[in-house]
Amino acid sequence: MTTIIMQPGQVSLKDWRTIYEGAPAVLHEDALPAVIASEQAVQRIIARNTPVYGINTGFGKLANVRIPDDQLAQLQHNIVISHAAGVGEPAPVNVIRLMMALKLASLGHGASGVKLETVKLLEAFLNEGITPVVPEKGSVGASGDLAPLSHMTMALIGLGDVLVDGKQMPAADAMAKASLTPLSLGPKEGLALLNGTQYSTAQALAGLFAAQHGFASALITGAMSTDAAKGSTAPMDPRIHALRGHQGQITVAAALRELLEGSTIRDSHLQCEKVQDPYCLRCQPQVMGAAFDLLNQAATTLLTEANGVSDNPLIFSDTDEALSGGNFHAEPVAFAADMIAMAVCEIGSLSERRIAMLVDPALSGLPAFLTPRPGLNSGFMIPQVTAAALVSENKQQAFPASVDSIPTSANQEDHVSMAAHGARRLAGMNTNLQHILAIELLIAVQGIDLHGDMKTSPHLETVRQTLRSEVPMLQDDRYMAKDMAAAFALISGSGLTGPVAEIFNPAQSGGASA
């Protein structure tokens, strides 16, 4: 797989996604002089023999405790082992790899005071496939993601466990097999590694990538439901959307027009007497367009965060200053995660309304529950119930995490972002969305098939045939969960989105490949 060469501050969203999908990553060699200069600045700051937070003082509420020079290494070691206090199941490997790459890029700015050796070891972990075991819970998103990043740092100093090729083992053993030497932390290094928003940002980016995929899938299933219900394409007329002006709305309408172009089902009812369709069909550009704009805004925020520096204090080597601030506060990430959660919730909600519309003969004009022989057969009655349950669950999960705060560290850290679990919940919400869309795919294709010889558009016919190669048309009741699982596999894969797969077209700013 192509290695991503990261120029700090200039890594594109596409490159972050590629790293998330498993690509190796290294810092651009141009970044290394700044890393060296930053570590040298720390040494000069220590030589002045004045108290500087995080370098020769305690942490948090203990910031006023001065630490002697001969205990500075122990100070950094202690903060790592004491802060490695996460709980829960291990976070996914791809999320932790992305977290490590984000930390590597942050250190590459040369504002954190770490040794070049530290940066190189983090690179080696990424490229040797050594992934620290990081419990998924324990961060409040300020002062940074302390517990998750401490578990990462534990592995770098040869403690804790790691995963290699799916096998869990002690970090020291994995490092020995890879001919790597555990890190001896210098002044400031422990704090630089465990302070920052990289865990929250990695979880949020993972949620964003899944939401973008779900969005594209929902355009496909929404277009298919429109054809199954013999819905009108007049609401997709570009003149309507140009007058309102929202770019997402304009983009979605254009995508739906393209997806439905050439449908003989659509052509068969162009002169019908029906005046308007339900909102779940007619307002797709407005609702999905708003979600599109929201996801793009979240992407902008997360890309900025991914390319920034969020530990504390920050080292300015040109003036030999260590400035304490609050870049570790993950409020921007928390807001972005909340926006993604709202978008995911609404995409699923609109899909479920289309499902409910199609199984209702009064609204769809199709047989009840889309079974040719209703009564004896229940057809798609209960899959709609399942979709409703998943939508309700996502609604509860969509409550903003960012509006909650619990003071920590004896009220020194008196306002926190809750970005970590706000981002982490997105995985489950996106899985729910994929199940909802899988149910819509089954039902929309069934509805299209019930139109007999009339065909949907060429784009959508390809999707229909792909599903039918796995799931035959429903005639009489059968084990429905198996069909739903097959549809879920198609939705969660990459083969159905076709012409809308690149609708978000992530920015290509910066980044390089080798």
Word description of this protein:
The chain has 20 helices and ten strands. By secondary structure, it is mostly helical. A three-stranded mixed β-sheet has the order 2-1-10. Helix 1 links the parallel strand 1 and strand 2. Helix 3 packs across helix 6, helix 9 runs antiparallel to helix 14 and helix 11 packs across helix 14. It is elongated. The C terminus is likely disordered.
Count of helices?
20
Quick check: average pLDDT? 94
- The unreliable regions are 506-514
Envelope shape:
elongated
How many DSSP E strands?
10
**Biggest sheet character:** 3 strands, mixed
Topology:
Layout: E1 4-6, H1 13-20, E2 25-27, H2 32-47, H3 72-83, E3 87-90, H4 93-107, H5 116-128, E4 130-132, E5 135-137, H6 146-156, E6 161-164, E7 167-170, H7 171-177, H8 189-194, H9 198-228, H10 238-244, H11 247-260, H12 264-268, H13 279-282, H14 284-306, E8 314-316, E9 321-323, H15 331-359, H16 361-364, H17 381-397, H18 419-449, H19 458-468, H20 480-492, E10 512-513
Parallel strand pairs: 1-2
Antiparallel strand pairs: 1-10, 3-5, 4-6, 6-7, 8-9
Helix pairs in contact: 3-6, 4-5, 4-9, 9-11, 9-14, 9-15, 9-18, 11-14, 14-15, 15-17, 15-18, 17-18, 18-20
Labels describing this entry:
10 strands, disordered C terminus, 3-stranded mixed β-sheet, elongated, 54% helix, 514 residues, 20 helices, mainly alpha, 3-stranded antiparallel β-sheet
In short:
The protein is mainly α and 514 residues long.
